[in-house]
């Protein structure tokens, strides 16, 4: 069947056209260093944060800060986001991705440029992601969608993005306060739902080699990420000893991970953890992600009372540098570019 009549993008065609880079193959795939066992990351019950008892709030903040500095990633329970809403969104997500490839490319009720597939900037197979995504700026989800076909989808996405935005703000505030920042300087001042992004990922079944990635190793270019994925698992993170481990999915929980901006702002106290999604053979995998970002002109700076490790930069400068590296090198360099 010609690719434009199918829903999946021509991933295999694109992937097989790329050369393999022997060195990267050795270094970044590092299959020998991959621990196949599933790892339990910390789980934090957020009930304590909203508790009227001050000791409970303090303990919960401490737990979040410990997980953010030791792991950079953790599960949260009692997060306040309705399971029903997550299920409805998942149904809409599956419906969206099952539309014909040509339709997804042209318009699916989302801003132009939201749809992405594979890795157009990849210079070799090791930089290629076997997935497709809608990466949606939330600045205009409030706009009414004139098409009936996508109306429910837009409404559900808007509701979920609002709830995830509230959750991201609560966690970011707790992490800022733990470092002794007055609420007037809290990072959430420069972030809102309208400066943030929502991403829907789809990892189609990968029929070829074990040596592809669903999503290549990366850190997130934001303050904080809230992730909802399915039971398929396959998310891996890089540990301090450079070994990759698989994150064990936890029913009912959401995953929170620290992004580059929080690492810079906290002077490396909180860790932006490198993660990747492994390919899988069989059922398709889906995930939805909220990226807490500031406006492009926001200075990131560093929190008070510590000598800065990174020079001050705006989020816009950071994005520009990342885009430049991705174009020139095929991959992101990120924070090391801003070291003092
Ligand atoms: O799908 C996942 O589990 C991870 C997604 C992710 O890391 C991203 O979209 O940045
Ligand atoms: Fe990510």
TrEMBL record:
Residue ranges of every copy of the Fe2OG dioxygenase domain listed in the record? 193-294
Per UniProt, the keywords (alphabetical) are: Iron, Metal-binding, Oxidoreductase
Molecular function in Gene Ontology: metal ion binding; oxidoreductase activity
Q: Which domain of life is it from?
A: Eukaryota
Recorded coiled-coil stretches: none
What cofactor(s) does the depicted protein rely on? L-ascorbate
- One Pfam family cited in the UniProt record for this chain: DIOX_N
> Known InterPro entries for this protein?
DIOX_N (IPR026992), IPNS-like_FE2OG_OXY (IPR044861), IPNS-like_sf (IPR027443), Iron_ascorbate_oxido_reductase (IPR050231), Oxoglu/Fe-dep_dioxygenase_dom (IPR005123)
Question: In which family does this protein belong, per the annotation?
Answer: Belongs to the iron/ascorbate-dependent oxidoreductase family.
Name-wise, this protein is: Gibberellin 20-oxidase
């Amino acid at each position: 069947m010609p690719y434009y009549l199918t829903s999946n993008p021509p991933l295999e065609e694109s992937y097989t056209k790329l050369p393999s880079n022997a060195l990267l193959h050795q270094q970044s795939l590092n299959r020998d260093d991959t621990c196949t066992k599933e790892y339990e990351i910390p789980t934090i019950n957020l009930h304590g944060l909203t508790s009227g008892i001050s000791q409970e709030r303090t303990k919960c903040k401490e737990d979040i800060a410990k997980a953010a500095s030791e792991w950079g990633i953790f599960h949260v329970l009692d997060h306040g986001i309705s399971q029903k809403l997550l299920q409805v969104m998942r149904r809409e997500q599956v419906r969206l991705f099952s539309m014909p490839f040509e339709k997804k490319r042209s318009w699916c009720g989302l801003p132009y440029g939201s749809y992405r597939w594979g890795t157009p900037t990849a210079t070799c197979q090791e930089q290629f992601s076997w997935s497709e995504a809608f990466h949606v700026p939330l600045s205009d989800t409030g706009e009414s969608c004139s098409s009936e076909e996508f109306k429910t989808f837009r409404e559900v996405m808007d509701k979920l993005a609002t709830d995830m935005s509230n959750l991201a703000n609560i966690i970011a505030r707790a992490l800022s306060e733990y470092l002794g920042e007055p609420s007037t300087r809290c990072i959430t001042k420069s972030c809102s739902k309208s400066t943030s992004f929502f991403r829907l990922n789809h990892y189609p079944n990968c029929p070829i080699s074990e040596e592809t990635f669903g999503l290549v190793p990366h850190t997130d270019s934001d303050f904080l990420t809230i992730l909802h994925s399915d039971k398929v698992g396959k998310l891996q993170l890089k540990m301090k000893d450079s070994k990759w481990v698989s994150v064990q999915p936890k029913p009912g929980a959401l995953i929170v991970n620290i992004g580059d901006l929080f690492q810079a702002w906290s002077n490396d106290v909180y860790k932006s953890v490198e993660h990747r999604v492994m390919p899988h053979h069989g059922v398709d995998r889906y995930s939805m992600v909220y990226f807490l970002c500031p406006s492009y002109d926001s200075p990131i700076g560093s929190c008070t009372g510590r000598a800065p490790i990174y020079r001050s930069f705006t989020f816009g400068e950071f994005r520009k540098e990342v885009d430049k590296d991705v174009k020139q090198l095929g991959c992101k360099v990120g924070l090391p570019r801003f070291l003092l």
